[in-house]
């Protein structure tokens, strides 16, 4: 049987775009031009997702799945990358003429890694995508010049990322030993000669992914990394890499019955519970907005895992919806921080924001309400959708914990709004507020409108999510190669 | 499990443990070379002589030499000739050398006792350079192309971080 493989259009466009950006740097450094090229590349890859595939290769191993789930997550990733691109512009770190061009090149490469992960059906293509996402992130995290905590954050990130990659590879090796195939799929432990090896492989792969997703108990690096790096890069770590990993994880388990109690299912359940409770408790005590968002991001991974654990028609649809809702709201907060007060990440700096910048404070409140899950913001419907999926899947215990930890979450999200409503204390000098540049302002407005619109009319996104089918990687017979 | 394979594995683990417990970079590097040699022997025993050769040439050869160069260059300009001499006394290189000697003896022993009972090799016998090349530039061509972008990403990141530190020291 003739096998063939293809390269998704978005990956192709991003590869070519990265080369064009390299060429640009080689000709001469000009941050503004490189930023425009980077934006064009991202927009072009967004357009390319919907086009028919152009690059086929006969006689090749199947590397990518041509399904709607891959396209959906790719669109989400590219849109997030565009948002991050817009909020990076005029950032003091990025505008530095000697290094700014690399920033946009690394952003393109990170997007390339994320997009290739979402469609990967082969261990090799998944791993290449993952590393293509992780290595540019390393450079981006260390991008703040002369900041010692940026170096510290990069160090923490690279060491823990290396550990996670090693675990993943070990898991892949054990799975290969057992099944003799490199398909990116959790092995069915039932019909194996050595079920223990296959189970160990799955658990190791899962642990590696949780490390990268920073779910509790693998979450230690996230808060420090978000605090140490610049705000757009923090958004990249908190949003883009999580979408990519979650999308890949869903595909990895597409063929496994998660109703069945087994070591892998138990690990996911334990991690989901720990993430929901631990993430919210971590966020509760923070005084830095970025650390609070790190805790919130961990908790949201826990909520997503509840949808992931509730097999049924609602599972993919609700996780897709939740991913979109989480990305929009979190990106909105980061865009606001980057635009209004790039230096003021302490929550107390936001005192009296409703008086000083009413529009920005209103937008911030919408994003926070969405993350807390309060109507009319989109986060309410997203959480409701996950609860529906959980009910359909019979995960009552998990839902109970979801509701309880959401109540904890309510406290710290609303605390920020309360602080913005209060007048600034006299003894503490007010930190200077800047106005965002036009693009960032437009980005914030669009994100706030999207948060409200999808919260009130979620129908479009629900219909989109209902058609999502995750294809497990094809069986060995149809690929022709191991 | 064959006895040579067990010896190689044991040597690799011992040397790796020494790598991460040394406090002086050069000492760790010498043990690292022993680890990589042991790994190369493991690859060879498993039926991948090409991978073993690459391990020796690229890792133990080129990359380790580069590491040693960097360690020497970083300390440039300091009066540490005596310190460097003290780095490589007999006590520091004799253990890695012994480990490498064990590997050599086992390898020679294994080579002279090629028996009818073959090693747990891959199904098609030893995997040579031709087989690897045909695979890489046949079915896995797209992954080769994608990994070039991975290398580009690593290169740009490393360049960026390295240059930052360099400029700060001015």
Could you outline the blueprint of secondary structure elements for this entry?
The complex is a heterodimer of chains A (482) and B (170).
Chain A (H helix, E strand, L loop, with lengths): L3 E4 L1 H19 L3 H19 L5 E4 L9 H21 L11 H20 L3 H19 L6 H32 L15 H19 L6 H9 L2 H22 L10 H22 L4 H20 L4 H28 L12 H4 L1 H15 L5 H16 L2 H26 L16 H19 L2 H8 L9 H4 L3
Antiparallel strand pairs in A: 1-2
Chain B lengths: L2 H19 L3 H21 L3 H26 L6 H7 L2 H23 L16 H8 L4 H28 L2
Helix pairs in contact in B: 1-2, 1-5, 2-3, 2-5
Please tell me about this protein's structure.
The complex is a heterodimer of chains A (482) and B (170). Chain A is an all-alpha fold and 482 residues long. Chain A has 19 helices and 2 strands. In chain A, strands 1-2 form a two-stranded antiparallel ribbon. In chain A, helix 3 (68-88) packs antiparallel against helix 4 (100-119), helix 7 (195-213) packs antiparallel against helix 9 and helix 9 runs parallel beside helix 11. The longest helix of chain A has 32 residues, at 148-179. Chain B has 170 residues and is mostly helical. Chain B is built from 7 helices and no strands. Chain B has helices at 3-21, 25-45, 49-74, 81-87, 90-112, 129-136, 141-168. Chain B is flat, with a radius of gyration of 20 Å. Chain A binds chain B through residues 3, 5, 7, 11, 15, 18, 22, 57, 59-61, 63, 99, 102, 105-106, 109-110, 112-113, 116, 122, 124-125, 128-129, 131-132, 135-136, 138-139, 142-143, 145-146, 154, 481, and chain B through 138-143, 145-147, 149-150, 152-154, 156-161, 163-164, 167-168. Chain B: GO terms for molecular function: NADH dehydrogenase (ubiquinone) activity; oxidoreductase activity; quinone binding.
Q: Tally of extended strands of chain B?
A: 0
Strand content of chain B: under 5%
Percent helix of chain B, as a range, is over 70%
For the report, how would you describe the main beta sheet of chain B? Answer: none
Task: Give the low-confidence spans of chain A.
Answer: 476-482
Q: Give helix and strand order of chain A, one letter per element, not per position.
A: EHHEHHHHHHHHHHHHHHHHH
- What fraction of the residues of chain A are assigned to beta strands by DSSP? under 5%
Query: How many domains make up the 3D coordinates of chain A?
Result: 1
Number of strands of chain A: 2
What is the CATH architecture assignment of the largest domain in chain B? Up-down Bundle
Terminal Cα separation of chain A, in Å? 13 Å
Number of domain units of chain B = 2
Radius of gyration of chain B: 20 Å
Order of helices and strands of chain B: HHHHHHH
Fill in the CATH topology of the largest domain in chain B: Four Helix Bundle (Hemerythrin (Met), subunit A)
Which stretches of chain B are poorly predicted, pLDDT < 50 over at least 5 residues? none
């Amino acid at each position: 049987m003739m096998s063939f493989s293809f390269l998704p259009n978005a990956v192709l466009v991003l590869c070519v775009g990265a080369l064009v950006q390299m060429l640009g740097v080689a000709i001469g450094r000009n941050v503004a031009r490189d930023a425009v090229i980077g934006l064009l590349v991202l927009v072009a890859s967004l357009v390319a997702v919907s086009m028919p595939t152009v690059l086929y290769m006969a006689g090749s191993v199947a590397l990518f799945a041509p399904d709607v789930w891959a396209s959906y997550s790719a669109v989400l990733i590219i849109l997030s990358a565009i948002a991050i691109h817009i909020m990076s512009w005029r950032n003091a770190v990025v505008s530095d003429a000697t290094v700014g061009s690399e920033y946009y090149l690394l952003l393109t490469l990170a997007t390339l890694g994320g997009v290739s992960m979402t469609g990967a059906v082969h261990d090799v293509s998944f791993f290449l995508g993952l590393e293509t996402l992780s290595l540019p992130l390393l450079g981006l995290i260390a991008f703040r010049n002369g900041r010692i905590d940026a170096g510290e954050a990069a160090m923490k990130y690279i060491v823990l990322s290396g550990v996670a990659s090693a675990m993943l590879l070990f898991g892949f090796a054990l799975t290969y030993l057992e099944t003799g195939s490199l398909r990116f799929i959790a092995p069915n432990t039932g019909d194996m000669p050595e079920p223990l090896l296959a189970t160990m492989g799955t658990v190791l792969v899962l642990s590696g992914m949780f490390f990268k997703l920073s779910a509790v108990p693998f979450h230690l690096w996230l808060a420090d990394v978000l605090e140490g790096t610049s705000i757009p890069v923090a958004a990249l770590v908190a949003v883009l890499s999580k979408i990519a990993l979650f999308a890949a994880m869903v595909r990895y388990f597409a063929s496994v019955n998660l109703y069945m109690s087994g070591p892998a299912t138990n690990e996911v359940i334990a991690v989901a519970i720990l993430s929901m409770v631990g993430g919210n408790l971590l966020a509760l005590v923070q005084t830095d907005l970025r650390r609070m968002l790190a805790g919130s991001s961990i908790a949201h991974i826990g909520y997503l895992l509840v949808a992931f654990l509730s097999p049924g028609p609602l599972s993919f649809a609700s996780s897709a919806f939740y991913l979109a809702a989480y990305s929009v709201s979190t990106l909105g907060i980061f865009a606001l921080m980057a635009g209004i007060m790039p230096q003021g990440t302490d929550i107390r700096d936001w005192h009296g924001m409703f008086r000083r910048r009413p529009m920005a404070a209103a937008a911030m409140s919408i994003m926070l309400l969405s993350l807390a899950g309060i109507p009319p913001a989109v986060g309410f419907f997203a959480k409701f959708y996950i609860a529906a999926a959980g009910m359909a899947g019979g995960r009552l215990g998990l839902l109970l914990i979801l509701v309880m930890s959401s109540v904890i979450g309510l406290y710290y999200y609303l605390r920020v709004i309360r602080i913005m409503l209060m007048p600034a204390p006299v003894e503490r000098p007010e930190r200077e507020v800047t106005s965002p540049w036009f693009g960032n302002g437009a980005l914030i407005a669009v994100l706030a409108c999207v948060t409200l619109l999808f919260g009130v009319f979620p129908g479009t996104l629900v219909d989109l999510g209902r058609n999502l089918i995750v294809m497990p990687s094809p069986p060995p017979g149809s690929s022709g190669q191991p | 499990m064959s006895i040579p394979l067990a010896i190689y594995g044991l040597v690799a683990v011992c040397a790796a443990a020494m790598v991460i417990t040394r406090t002086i970079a050069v000492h760790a590097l010498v043990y690292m070379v022993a680890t990589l040699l042991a790994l190369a022997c493991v690859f060879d025993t498993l039926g991948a002589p090409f991978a073993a050769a690459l391990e020796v040439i690229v890792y133990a050869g080129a990359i380790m030499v580069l590491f040693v160069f960097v360690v020497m260059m970083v300390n440039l300009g300091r009066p540490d000739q005596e310190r460097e001499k003290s780095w490589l006394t007999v006590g520091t290189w004799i253990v890695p050398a012994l480990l490498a000697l064990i590997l050599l003896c086992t390898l020679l022993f294994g080579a002279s006792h090629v028996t009818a009972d073959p090693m747990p090799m891959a199904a098609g016998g030893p995997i040579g350079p031709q087989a690897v090349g045909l695979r890489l530039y046949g079915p896995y061509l797209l992954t080769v192309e994608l990994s070039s972008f991975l290398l580009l990403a690593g290169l740009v990141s490393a360049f960026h971080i390295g240059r930052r530190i360099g400029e700060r020291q001015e």
